[in-house]
Design goal:
By secondary structure, the chain is an all-alpha fold. It contains five helices and no strands. It is elongated and about 50 Å long.
Length: about 90
């Protein structure tokens, strides 16, 4: 058995890793949780393949969507409204 593939008695670990793969990809996990995902991906070839596919799709979507910023006048109006409400 190689380090990159292993047998699972239960698929719970894989299900949990893949359920959080999007949060992992978007850096939305605390570092300890991200480390758990990294360790699992390193050990599980099937999950790593799924992760790579999700990562590629996420990267393609990100590149295809231009970043839009609110006009400075709108941002200033919203900031003024927030101050006025307090």
């Amino acid at each position: 058995m190689s380090a990159m593939s292993h047998e699972h008695d239960e698929m719970d670990e894989c299900v949990q890793a893949l359920a959080r793969v999007h949060a992992f990809l978007h850096n939305e996990l605390v570092e300890a949780d991200a480390d758990v995902i990294r360790i699992h991906l390193h050990a599980c070839e099937r999950c790593m393949e799924n992760f790579e596919i999700e990562s590629t799709i996420t990267e393609m979507i990100t590149r295809s969507q231009p970043v839009h910023h609110a006009p400075t006048t709108l941002a200033a109006r919203i900031q003024t409204m927030r101050i006025a409400r307090r």
